[in-house]
């Protein structure tokens, strides 16, 4: 019985840590959305070049650094606005859900599960066209968060909260 208690506590801790990480990610997405809105394409291009300069000096064939530079150079105004809106709304949704989950609002659990599932579908779609290890990790993380959120929801409903 004690092992189950430890396991339960560990899963509760993983849930809270995962949710907090989602909240921090949401906060950074909002900041990224504002940066996209208020920084010029030329300034963004210079920042990307500055950030990747050292890596490209060491390894001119670095895929991520080269992709970042090419992406920044080809960024249109419409893509920039879409990116800003996407990041901002994505971040706001995450923060609202995270705060509601941490406050144990029952409506937030199925809502979070649904929205995180939609994020997974979009990430899989993105992976098909732009494969990346980061998307795989993010998708696995989101799937774990969904499972832990479902577990927490069932636990709270059984407790009558």
Explain what you see.
The protein is mainly α and 161 residues long. The chain has one domain (2-159). Helix content is 88%, strand content 0%. The protein contains six helices and no strands. The chain is elongated.
Q: What key phrases describe this protein's structure?
A:
161 residues; mainly alpha; 6 helices; 88% helix; 0% strand; elongated
Give a nutshell description of this structure.
This protein is mainly alpha-helical. The chain is 88% helix and 0% strand.
List the SSEs and their pairings.
Blueprint lengths: L1 H37 L2 H18 L4 H11 L3 H26 L5 H22 L3 H27 L2
Q: How many strands appear in the DSSP assignment? A: 0
The description of the largest β-sheet is: none
The H-and-E topology, N to C, reads as HHHHHH
Indicate the multimeric state.
Answer: single chain
* Intertermini distance: 24 Å
Helical coverage, percent range: over 70%
């Amino acid at each position: 019985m004690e092992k189950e208690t430890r396991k339960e506590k560990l899963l509760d801790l993983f849930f809270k840590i995962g949710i907090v990480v989602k909240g921090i990610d949401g906060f950074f997405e909002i900041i990224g959305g504002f940066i996209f809105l208020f920084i010029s394409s030329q300034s963004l291009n210079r920042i990307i070049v500055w950030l990747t300069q050292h890596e490209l000096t060491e390894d001119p064939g670095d895929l991520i650094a080269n992709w970042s530079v090419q992406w920044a150079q080809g960024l249109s105004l419409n893509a920039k606005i879409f990116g800003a809106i996407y990041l901002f709304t994505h971040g706001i949704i995450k923060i609202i859900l995270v705060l509601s989950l941490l406050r144990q609002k029952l409506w937030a659990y199925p809502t979070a599960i649904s929205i995180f599932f939609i994020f997974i579908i979009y990430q899989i779609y993105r992976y098909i066209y732009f494969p990346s290890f980061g998307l795989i990790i993010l998708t696995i993380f989101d799937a774990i968060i969904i499972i832990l959120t479902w577990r927490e929801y069932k636990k709270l409903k059984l407790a009558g909260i």
